[in-house]
Amino acid sequence: MVNSKQEKLGRISEVRKNSFIIYFEEQEVIGKLRGSFYEEEADKLPVVGDYVRFIHNPLGDSVIQSVCDRKGLLQRPDQAKTGVMQYMVANVDYCFIVTSLNDDYNYNRIARYASVALQGGAVPVAILTKADLCTNVGRYISEVETISDKIKVHAVSALLNIGMDELKEYFATGKTVCLMGSSGAGKSTLINAIAGEDVMETSAIRESDSKGRHTTTHRQLIKLSNGAFVIDTPGMREIGMAGTEDGIDDTFSDIIELEARCKFRNCRHETEPGCAVKAAIARGELSKKRFMLYMSLGQENTNNYAKKKEISKLAKMYKKGKK
């Protein structure tokens, strides 16, 4: 029997089908969950970026005992399972929203990622890659900056080392940067440029539609030589909203402030008199496109969260019935 004093602290660097890879003392250890873990809710199970306490077994599989308190958790509704949440990564300081300045660029998608990042306790940082191939970089930077006063924006070219020095501030010792974005947006190339070596496989995009192939097939935590951490994620062209009300409010904080000035507390911003939102749109202080995006994300979040709660309720009833 292994003595409990041998319990160690490590960090989840990869989640596999029936096991976990734990980063511990500059090495990777294979770990499995203690049996009682399977009675926990899904959001209590370890994800990439989690700090865990485990019983170290140098001769075989180590046993994960507990997940340490998180300072944040990035999540989204599982596209394949309506109402079920997908818990992606934990303990992220900065969420790099990587989008290339070609057909991949999508204002609405960046706003979605920003809301997910803010909900999960991370600072959203829009990284506009392949700036060397764009003739109007300034327009894109200005447009992305209107998404939220919380978002930071950088236009870079990893291949030509344009704007890369601006990113160094995010990679301080002990900080964790998570990269999210579409396949072919340049996430792996960006990581390699930051690391100073080829730690991630890269692939070229298709010229016909500016889309890339999935070079990253799973979430993976990498420790850089200076002690910072990077988490790469598989390409996602879409990201849904569920349980992100606070993140949406943070992203669109200017609209939240306007809503507080409306004459009626339950103002729907349609035909009600004294609507501060409609007045701001009429004065040109708020774009109708941005307001419609705010309303759309809010409605999607409400609908998906309601489905999640119903499925969670049914799952608990099923578990209770089995006991």
Topology:
Blueprint lengths: L6 E9 L4 E5 L2 E7 L17 E5 L6 E6 L5 E5 L7 E6 L3 E7 L6 H13 L3 E7 L7 H9 L6 E4 L20 E6 L5 H9 L24 E4 L5 E4 L12 H7 L1 H7 L16 H8 L4 H35 L1
What this model shows, in words?
This protein is an alpha/beta fold and 323 residues long. It folds into 3 domains: 62 residues, Nucleic acid-binding proteins (OB fold (Dihydrolipoamide Acetyltransferase, E2P), Beta Barrel), CATH 2.40.50; 160 residues, P-loop containing nucleotide triphosphate hydrolases (Rossmann fold), CATH 3.40.50; 74 residues, Ribonucleotide Reductase Protein R1, domain 1, CATH 1.10.40. The chain is 27% helix and 23% strand. It has 7 helices and 13 strands. The strands form 3 sheets. It has a 6-stranded mixed beta sheet with strand order 10-9-8-11-13-12, sandwiched between helices. Strands 1-2-3-5-4 form a 5-stranded mixed β-barrel. A hairpin with a 7-residue loop joins strand 6 and strand 7. It is globular and about 70 Å long. The chain starts with 6 loop residues before the first strand and ends with a helix. About 4% of the residues have low confidence.
